[in-house]
Amino acid sequence: MRAALLAFAALSLVAQDERIFAESMARLEREDPAGKKDLEDASPIRLAALALNPAKATEQARFAAASWLWATNLIRGFRHGKEQTYLQAARTQADLLKAWTLLETVGAGQARARDGLRLELAWRLLDLDRMRTAYAAVSAQPSPNMRELAHCFFVAAHLGDWAGMKKHGQALVAQGGKLEGLHAAAENTLTMFDYESLLKAVETGHPGAPAGPLSVQSHRISKWRVRVTGISGSHKAIVKEAESWSKDWVDRPDSTVDLLQVGAAAHWIESGTQPPVSGFLNAGRLYLVGYRDTQGGPTGDAGRQEQMWDMHQDAQNPNRWRGTNALTARVVGADPKTGPALLVTFEVEWDMRSTETYR
Predict the structure, then answer these.
(1) Is residue 185 located within the same domain as residue 207?
(2) 318: part of which helix (H) or strand (E)?
(3) Domain containing 43: what range?
(4) 3-state secondary structure of 209
(5) pLDDT digits 0-9 by tens, 248-261
(6) SS3 state of residue 242
(7) Which of 166, 190, 214 is the last residue of a domain?
(8) Which of 154, 172, 190 lies at the terminal end of a domain, its last residue?
């Protein structure tokens, strides 16, 4: 039955060409109730786009269908199958894979738009090979626009092109881009890299060029041990409270956290009080930074909590990692000359094992 629907949808498209996709996008933009029906799995337009034959459709129709599939993927949101891991679901999104296929036959007349869209698809698919292909084309464009800069900024991080990431980030800000908006997106989506913090990690952690082939992996962090090694700060009440914490090793045997690695970039996946932290994983070193702005607790002190993790792989036991964690608290309105309200450093040990890998 589904095959018949797909065939019928494709035949219908031949007569209407790319107009049906433009009309659908117009319905969605004006929030027409009919537009919501276009987003359904079995909607005629969606089936038509998925069934479109690149060899028979016009180039304009192929590009329109690919653009529509990408746009509606963002509107529909990420779909996670019950039997799939996050990486499996991300890398097998049928609408995005179809869009990529359609764009492969779009010619030089629309090369710039085609390459820009391919870069966005590759990023959304967490596909490093596709990222390399599209990034090489888009990053070489003269006078890139905001959309091109943003995705070059993202993808450069995953490919370990640190100089390129800095360059694209600077250009993005120069054109009016707000990197804090990327942090807000990461606050709302667990698997979204905080690219604002990732840039800071690159600037402060000074990673080298990626060592060895890049991969996409999920890691599980477990068997924690933490120990306070230093407490300081300008806020007497907060410092006094922190000084009551144990200075001995504290085991956290039941605590587990997932770490997402996409190429050279890494992202800590944890909800709750932990802010989104992102950074790089390269040559036996994991370096992550992040922050969360707070509205104030019982003391009424609003401010910012910052995290930094600098972990190194044990040369004798590859699954064991050791390093430091720094927690910094700043209070809104405080004199910058006095330094942070609180700075606590921890010695940390944990096990980290890969649970899923794609080359």
Answers:
(1) no
(2) none
(3) 2-190
(4) coil
(5) 999 987 788 999 99
(6) helix
(7) 190
(8) 190
